[in-house]
Amino acid sequence: MASAERPGTGYSYTNNWPGEPLLGNAPTADPVLWSVVSLIALLVGIGALFGAFRR
Description:
mainly alpha, elongated
């Protein structure tokens, strides 16, 4: 595992992904938030397609 910390911050250039709890490397809240938002957007988009084509 390798990371490069950003100067003056508590996280790395890769947003601490993938996380490794044994090393104290955990993802920040931003990647988790955007993962949830993108999953919801994907499901809404699929639902809109099914609604548009009524299948």
